[in-house]
Design brief:
It is built from five helices and no strands. The protein is mainly alpha-helical. α1 packs antiparallel against α2 (52-103).
Length: 167
């Protein structure tokens, strides 16, 4: 069975992982600030009390408010993370569809990503490969015989997948 190598690096792609970690830290700080503000606002009017029952009731009231505020904040956090993830998932998706089209022999325009997207260098690398594939296709077309009807259906070229024939 194939065993994956052990990871030795914590950060594989610093800009993306750093953006995620900074967002998580920002959310945590924002959550702590909102909860501390809620507790302070609720404690202003109540003042200290010696009644343990009243202290318990006040505590559970504060817990409920913190839970409600956290629950209301969650959809906003999820929406922000989805928008942030578009900056790296979008380019990978576009690269995947371009590679599939190229493997099928379709014409593929040079790849460009939106400003602010991650993996900008990946588009340049793909475009360099695209130019090379086009040159190889042109060279192959020039050396190919004019009459292709002679080729038998048992040719090894036809039995290969698009990925194998490109190698």
């Amino acid at each position: 069975m194939f065993k994956l190598p052990v990871r030795r690096q914590i950060f594989i792609h610093g800009p993306i992982q750093g953006a995620l970690l900074s967002r998580i830290a920002l959310y945590w700080l924002l959550c702590m600030f909102i909860q501390a503000l809620l507790i302070m606002l609720l404690s202003v009017g109540s003042g200290p009390t010696a009644d343990p029952y009243q202290q318990t009731q006040q505590f559970w009231w504060h817990v409920k408010l913190v839970l409600v505020s956290s629950t209301l904040t969650l959809p906003l956090l999820m929406l922000d993370i989805i928008k942030l993830s578009h900056r790296w998932v979008g380019p990978i998706y576009r690269l995947k569809t371009a590679m599939q089209a190229l493997a099928m022999g379709e014409a593929v325009p040079p790849l460009t990503f939106r400003a602010g997207d991650y993996w900008q260098d990946l588009a340049g690398d793909f475009n360099a490969v695209l130019v090379r594939v086009k040159h190889l296709d042109e060279a192959h077309d020039e050396t190919e015989p004019a009459d292709l009807t002679d080729r038998g259906s048992d040719s090894s070229f036809e039995k290969q997948s698009p990925a194998q024939s490109a190698i």
